[in-house]
Amino acid sequence: MSSRHDHEIKLEPTPRMFIPYVSGLPLRLLVLFLEYVPGLSNYFFWSRKINVLRNKRFNDEITVMPLPLPNEVFGIEEPMIINGLEIFDQKNKYNPILENQKFLCARDFTEAYLAKRVTPIQVCEKLIDKIDHSCSKACDPPLYGMYQYHKDDIMAQAKASTARYNQKLSLGPLDGVPVAIKDEFDVFGYETHGGTLFLNRGKPASKDAFLVKKLKDQGAIIIGKTNMHEIGFGTTTNNPNTQTTRNPYNPNHYCGGSSGGSACVVSSGLCPIAVGCDGGGSIRIPSSFCGIYGLKPTCGRISMTGDYPFINSVGVAGPMAANVDDLALAYYVMAGKDPEDPKTLLQPSPTLHNIYHTNTLTDLKIGVFSAWNKQVIDPNIKFALQTFMNEFQLRGAKFIEIDIPELDNARIAHLITITSELCSTMNGYRKSLRLLSPPNKMNFAVYNHISSSDYIKAQQIRTRIMRNFSKIFTGVNLILTPTCAITAPPIYPRALKYGEINPSVTYNGVMYTQLANLIGIPAITVPAGYNDKDLPIGLQFMAKWYDEATLLRVAKASEEILGSNRRKPSEKYWFGDLL
User: What are the coiled-coil residue ranges (predicted)?
Assistant: First the structure.
């Protein structure tokens, strides 16, 4: 990552939308026209102004994978604790969860097992019934958070965990804890469909993804695959193929996407931890909409071996959890080097250093770009942001006004990068693309007009933005923004059968999240309250490369600040009484 010039390249601001909202029969007709009327898809491409880079000249070098320069890596403090799992040892009284916490955490499960109040077998028997109900018409409407779950496999894992507890051979703080996996990671015996009707049909995975194996090695019970937006290309998890996942706080609103099923099952209490994947906000957006915690790690921090490679340079795996302790636990277990994923070999050792030092934050400088943060649509988000800033200041944190140059350039560069990589992957399935839902048929018709020149220039902009952020992080530890400019958008019944194109929801969903994916830095979303419709609000912190520990520390402080104001969903959509 380097650049020969420091001057800012300015582009014309691009519009928020290139077409209005469309769904149902009009969407199907539009897709037919795009596919069969010569020149129409090219018109939509040009009207979107995605080609705005094509006639610009850049002298910057190309950064294809957003890994930091060596000085960014070597500047990371090595962990004080050799084995970070020690702070989760049941024998140690680490910073306890809040007494008013309404969501079960991993520690609740393991303590119940150790005390012989319940066994993993009993928990999983109850859990399977609750999953069945959450996906049945008796739920009215069903949440559809889980997509695939093999009851025999769940019970086999539960029996093995129960035997370990009976023999006093627990594997650690995840043994017997239910964990769900997004349906783009391989889980032995499950087919990885990626939200489609054609990927890997009849081809169950012969082995676990690297991160799944690491979770299983700690005794986690993998309860199955969660629903997702088709091929991860959307922010709502509206998926006509696999059913649309609904928000436990209001089933008439979306849960976010593309890792919407993972957010749903955690938010509704079916499990305390789930795994998602984030290419432009796909962990953070649904976590924000569903009122849980979500961590998008540094590029290369968690192995992607065994992930379906939809988006190679912007997609990262990460944990989603009902509380920060479990988020940290899952992150620490999954992070680390994997010889089969070269991106992971550069990283320093993962650490949980200081994540419970939250009473005083005098050592933290937090950057805010006020003009950007004010672009939220829901005024309740502004109020939540200011409230949390006030609370952080009471703990000694310093807020510093910063400028983030070339934001619109970064947005275009990310759009070109993620769509180019996705089109490149899916074009290998030309004969099956007819099975895609109408929104993605339209997306491919438009985005396949991106040229190699567009892609190269997007990577040159990536170089510039990475350099800009290296400079910004010399003056601040963190950057604070809203997670999204909106809260969970409504589900329109006419969108359920064929999907929808909603540029406003997409734009306002990824406004603050896509930047971290473009340049590879870690980011976290924390629940920060609720709007006047009782829908969750999320705030986002971004940190320099590999500094997930500081993100987890401010997330823990945020959890304490929200405190008793944290709410669980209504009883109808709450399935967390597992113990």
Answer: none
